[in-house]
Amino acid sequence: MGYSLGVDLGTTFVAAAVARATKVEMFTLGDRSMVSPAIVYLREDGTLLTGEAASRRAVSGPDRVGREFKRRLGNPTPVILGGQAHSVTVLLGTLLRDVVQKVNATEGTPPDRVMLTHPANWGPFRRALFEEVPQHAGLANLPVVTEPEAAAAHYTKSRQLADGETVAVYDLGGGTFDATVLRKQPGGIEILGTPEGIERLGGVDFDELILSYVDYTAGGALRELDMRDRQTTVALARLRQDCILAKEALSVDTETILPVLLPGQHFDVHLTRSDFEDMVRAPIESTIGALSRTLQSAQVDPAELSAILLVGGSSRIPLVARMVAAELGRPTVVDTHPKYAVALGAATLASRLSVPHTVPHTNGQVTGPQSAGRQSAGRQTAGRQTDGRPIRGQQLPTAPVAVANVLSAAGSQQREPLIPATDPAGVVPPPPDALATDALGGGATSPIATTGGSPAPQAPPPTVDTRLPTDRPPVPESQRTGPAESGNAPDTAGPPGLPGPPPLGALPDRERRRRALISTGALLALAGMVTLVIFIVFSVLDHIRAASPPAPANEPVPTTARPTAGPEVPIPAFVATIPVGKSPQFIAVTPNGRHVYVANGEAQVVTVLDTAINQVTATIPIAAGPPQFLTFAPDGRKLYVSIFNAQKTIHAVDVIDTTSNTVVATIPQPARPFLPAVTPNGKLLYIPNHDVASVSVVATDTNKVIAQISVPANPHWVAFSRDGSRAYTANHESNVISVIDTGTLKVLTTVPVGKSPHSIAVSPSGSVVANVNYDSNSVTVIDTRTLKVLATIPVGKNPRDIIWAPDGRFTYVVNEDTNNVSVIDAATYKITATIPVGIAPNSIAVLPNGRQAYVSNINSGTLTVLDLTG
């Protein structure tokens, strides 16, 4: 009897399920577990091991192990294993190949059908790359489905839903978060609204928080390790595994002990569930914000939900269910093993496909009948708008043939109208100055071409660095080698076609379009293709112009230039202009992304904007004086407002309770307080006092100043390292960045930068810190480990604020006197775009999902909304 296979290639684990007739069950991949670690290990003979076999070798050979690489799909930098480079598609293909081989060996015959899953927040570029994964496993034309849809399919199979019932899927896995709203209708499942996702948020991030906690309690012992010592790298690898075990233990126990065995240092770290919950509360809050925005886009009130389905391994954290239920007021449903739900749902959907699709393989890896093929990716899928968005009322049928049709047509996965900021998605129309930058070598490089698991020619492999934080800083330009220098060939797969809906008329299938567009530069030399290229370009541009919002009378709109072929990064696009009152001095986004708070200095109010509808919903009077700067506590429950006037007679910090939007305390300061910051654990507030060269340290539970730290003249901004062990201040008149040890409250050193450093921001990985230099029109990037300047990047005139994308791929710089925002690629230190905004922009904030940014324009009295995905 034949069977169908569903495979969930997760960030941290691989799961597989088998469907036969009416029975769907998990397939045991591990020796002691249903799931297998998503890990690969390069053996000395050049072959790749996967799963538990690779995990067993991870401690002794950490430089030969690859993990969490699914997150890097779309990143042109290859994964280095034992000095050899491998593309992410090859590594994922290796995982898939071994899964199918193991199932084949156990079942005695190959599966009739195989279905894969992927995160809902992936854009076209990564979805196109993901389609290459089965080819590396000896398979082809595999249907794919988003992880929330697969989970919902499993839910509806195991729990009967009445027609009209609505559920939300909350999927918090090892590396990503997704939220989807679905409704049961007589003909199947209706997808409501636009699914939301948060890239780079999951269990691996929680593991890093525990590791940082260990380092913090050990007085920074981990940061001082010599990573050139093999014993040290082995010990740190073992400690990382213990952090994972501690996290899992706290889901069933209230406390645990982490043994820390380092060369010359042996000690234990006591970790309680409450300590862990304090670490993860803010990230979980951001997931609830994303779920709430999904509900709003679906026009569904939480009261209409029958249940909220919690899937993904990280949803087993007890705090998740408590916070979700308390916030939305609806019951939560957690499977006994939530990490299995996606694979089980994928197998269920695979069993409903009417056409087998595995490809014959002659080398003994995989055999099976040939696929009947897919529909063209360019066609409009039934039940979808031409831009790929689900039409309200669209149904995912449950009849086998209907499901096959829907999934085949959706094989191109045209689901999101927007491309996440983590996707250098296809060919995006850049402004003229961005084209000039690209011509000089800016922008992203092509993915490394590899086939069949064999590495392509590479630049000299970098030294493996497993220090904290895990993401090493970018290499300075003088030391960097790119594809041209290292002999790497560009990936012929490349990005997919032009963004947005296809032009009118028939188009080639997805693969031909993708490959044609990535090689447009060469094809333009062929006269026979000129007409086709021009037709595609102008048809898409016409559609973009027609779909774009009208330009406001007082706001410039980015200029659209003709696209160029080749891999490019997303160019942020203008979305809207929102009036927010007089003199918007500064803006800040709540940790959950639901609201933007605006300091209106001259009006002496703080304005509150709902990000779901982009409308002002509240105004908070600030009686103490003109509000200037804003910063949130990590949990978002308190907002700290810096207050001062031009006469320097008022200087204080107000504390606002964000649940009631009322001022609950005022903290007097010795001089004008600029932008403060709260330590990652939420216990201390650091306030830079501009005119007295000091930083006040305030206990957040009592709102009392407990210490003063002397720093160089005119401190402006404060930013913390990820673990809170260091604070950085930008000292405006001293032209330095101060590095403060938060344990001793002493300045460790100062780093000379450009003239008049104004604002400062630490990258999400913690590996680099960047600041803007107001009077030298530049950005300085500093390695937080060596405290050396890595790069100085010219930007617009009088840069005032800088912020990182949540995934760390870009920084966004507000240039006050040129009325624009510079977008900097963190991998190349090149400006990839310059986006016009309002008059005298002075601050920028980015939503936690990385898709949208808000820029305050002080002279316009407006906020400019930017779509960061292009």
Shape: globular
Structural class estimated from helices and strands: alpha+beta
Distance between the termini: 48 Å
Sheet bearing the most strands, described? 6 strands, mixed
Q: Give the number of DSSP strands.
A: 47
In helices, the fraction of residues equals 10-25%
Set down the secondary structure blueprint.
Elements: E1 4-9, E2 13-20, E3 23-27, E4 36-37, E5 39-42, E6 48-50, H1 51-56, E7 65-67, E8 79-81, E9 84-86, H2 88-107, E10 113-118, H3 124-130, H4 133-136, E11 144-146, H5 147-158, E12 166-172, E13 177-185, E14 188-198, H6 203-217, H7 230-249, E15 255-262, E16 265-272, H8 273-297, E17 305-311, H9 318-328, E18 332-334, H10 341-351, E19 395-397, H11 400-409, H12 432-439, H13 483-486, H14 510-518, H15 520-523, H16 527-547, E20 573-579, E21 584-589, E22 595-600, E23 605-610, E24 615-621, E25 627-632, E26 638-644, E27 651-657, E28 662-668, E29 677-678, E30 684-689, E31 694-699, E32 704-710, E33 715-720, E34 726-731, E35 736-741, E36 746-752, E37 757-762, E38 768-773, E39 778-783, E40 789-794, E41 799-804, E42 810-815, E43 820-825, E44 830-836, E45 841-846, E46 852-857, E47 862-867
Parallel strand pairs: 1-10, 10-11, 12-17, 17-18
Antiparallel strand pairs: 1-2, 2-3, 2-4, 5-6, 5-7, 8-9, 12-13, 13-14, 14-19, 15-16, 20-47, 21-22, 22-23, 23-24, 25-26, 26-27, 27-28, 29-30, 30-31, 31-32, 33-34, 34-35, 35-36, 37-38, 38-39, 39-40, 41-42, 42-43, 43-44, 45-46, 46-47
